[in-house]
Write a sequence for this structure.
């Protein structure tokens, strides 16, 4: 029970932090270009050369069909190179652009995938669907979703 409370409180703290950031933005307290440049985002951004395109190989098979049929709220496990497992819920699905956004229990973004990239991970067993979530976890997830939706409505 303490873990669930910690998760809930962590989610509330994240939302309050986001609201504080919006307040600072409204008050004109924004980061300078130098502060943005000094941020460590944990990954390098790679841009394509002008006129070139980065294309992912799209294989239309049963894995691509599984990805297309995914619904917001579906859970996956992502397996890293060391065999570590990270569970994540599909929080947003951009059908038009083929982008998928996954969050953890604290609603922190843990993965962003393209349709082809996600299908490739399923194909190579670097990702798999989670079908055995305990009933309590499913219920908690639904309650958290409802709280987040209610928070968003009251913030507007």
């Amino acid at each position: 029970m303490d873990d669930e409370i910690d998760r809930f409180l962590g989610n509330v703290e994240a939302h309050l932090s986001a609201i504080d950031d919006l307040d600072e933005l409204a008050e004109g307290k924004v980061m300078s270009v130098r502060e943005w440049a000094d941020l460590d985002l944990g990954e390098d951004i790679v841009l394509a050369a002008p006129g070139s395109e980065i294309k992912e190989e799209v294989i239309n098979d049963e894995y691509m069909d599984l990805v297309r049929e995914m619904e917001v709220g579906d859970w996956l496990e992502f397996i890293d190179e060391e065999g570590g497992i990270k569970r994540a819920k599909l929080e947003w699905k951009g059908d038009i652009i083929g982008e998928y956004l996954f969050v953890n229990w604290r609603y922190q973004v843990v993965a962003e995938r393209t349709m082809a990239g996600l299908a490739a991970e399923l194909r190579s067993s670097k990702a798999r669907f989670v079908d055995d979530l305990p009933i309590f976890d499913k219920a908690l997830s639904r309650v958290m979703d409802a709280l987040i939706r209610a928070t968003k409505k009251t913030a507007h």
